[in-house]
Amino acid sequence: MPTESSRKPRSDALHNHHRILGTARTSFAAGGLDVSMTEIARRAGVGIATLYRHFPAKSDLVIEVFTDQITECVAAIDRALADPDPWHGFRTVIEQLCELQAVDRGLTTVLLASVPDITVFEQERVRVENALAELARRAKAVGRLRPDFVRDDLTLVMMANSGITADSGEDALAASRRLAAYLVQAFQAVPERHPLPPAPRLGPHPALRGPHWR
């Protein structure tokens, strides 16, 4: 029979594993994938050696953090493809991607970019890229998406959305929704004006702060 002392290390190891995962999810969501393993270990309150025992490489940690979320994202893309209204499907994906980026910067990087040493999600990433291209093609075919829309315009959307800074996650999400609404209207072949989501309270962006802000 296992003794109390033989059970305790396994219990501690499981606790540390979950603690590291939780910390990594929060850290990657707020700061993207650039957060270092050393910083994650510090925030989780474990030694760097403990972290590497559970996750020998950063890619191992990223994969375990994002596997379930990637599956959910691909399912959302598939629902958009199944939407009988091509414009609604395209617009919904733009809005969802912007919201996703606002709340989890790491996930959008894994979903939309080719990340070195992380090839396990490559099939899903290519699937998402192809689905976005197909959604755009369908929306153009029914005359709802402007004909000069190109794939790089989606990159512009993500770049603009990634520049949002706010004092709270709630304000960042509200700003992202408003930006997405602006852009969706700009992408229409025949622009339709709809009320925008409420504007959040945002301070000056760091790039706009000169000496007069100090």
Automatic annotation (TrEMBL):
This is AcrR family transcriptional regulator. Gene3D superfamilies: Tetracycline Repressor, domain 2. It comes from the Bacteria. Residues 204-214 have a biased composition (Low complexity). Keywords: DNA-binding, Transcription, Transcription regulation. Residues 194-214 are annotated as: Disordered. The lineage of its organism: Bacteria, Bacillati, Actinomycetota, Actinomycetes, Streptosporangiales. It comes from Nocardiopsis terrae. Residues 36-55 bind DNA. Residues 14-73 form the HTH tetR-type domain.
